[in-house]
Amino acid sequence: MRQTVRLSLATATAAAMLVLSACGGSDSSDGDAPAADPETSATTPAAPETTDAPAAEQTKLAVDQTIQDDVLGDTIKITGMVRDFQAPSRTNIPEGGGEWVLLELDTKAGDKFSGGVQGGFTLYQTDGELAGSTTGIIDDDMTAAGFTPWETASAGEQTKGWVAFQVNTRADAYQLQYKRLAASVIGGGDPIPEKIWKIELPTS
C-alpha cells in the first residue's frame, strides 16, 4: 500500500503532497545581463581584433553512474554529459566565461511513497564551490538540438531526458550532487532523513 509522506515544517510549503521538494530542480534565472551590442560610435575607432582563445567546442561525453535510494526505491542513472552546449538564445553565458552543461538522466521512481523524483540536482566544482543549478530557460534550444528536456517522475514512473545547468564560471571538472530532503511519513513510520549523493563527472 502506497504511503504518503509529509516534509518537515521548514520545507512543507515548497513541496506539498510530495516526498521530496524540487530543490535544485526549479528554473534559475540566467543571472547575467545580455552581452552589450558590439557597436562602436562614429567618433571612436573600432578596437583592433584580439587574439583571445576561440570559444570552447561543444563536447558530448559518456557517463555510467547510478544513484540508488533504497529508502524511497528511486533509481537515477546518469548516462550522458554535454560540455559547452551551444544555446543560441543565451550566448551571454559562454561570452562571460561560463558554459551550459547538460546531463542525461534516466530516472525510475519507487512506488512505496507518493513523492517520486522531482529534482534536487546541483552542479559543484571539485573544490566544493557551487557551479550551477538546473534551469529550464534553454529548453527550446535543447529540443532544437535533439536533447529532450527531462521531466519529473511521479511514483512508479520512469522518465528519461536532459537537464541543463547554467555555469557562470567554467571549471575543468564538476561534481553532481543529488539531495533527498528529510521527510516524515503521514500515518506513522520512521522519519526519512536527508541524504546527499555525490557523483564525480568525467572530464573527457
Automatic annotation (TrEMBL):
Protein name (record): DUF4352 domain-containing protein
Keywords annotated in UniProt: Signal
The keyword Ubl conjugation belongs to this UniProt entry's keyword annotation: no
Phylogenetic placement of the source organism: Bacteria, Bacillati, Actinomycetota, Actinomycetes, Propionibacteriales
Region annotation Disordered: where it falls in the sequence: 24-54
Residues spanning the signal sequence: 1-22
Tagged with keyword Nucleus: no
Species per Swiss-Prot/TrEMBL record: Aeromicrobium endophyticum
Alphabetized InterPro entries for the sequence: Immunoprotect_excell_Ig-like
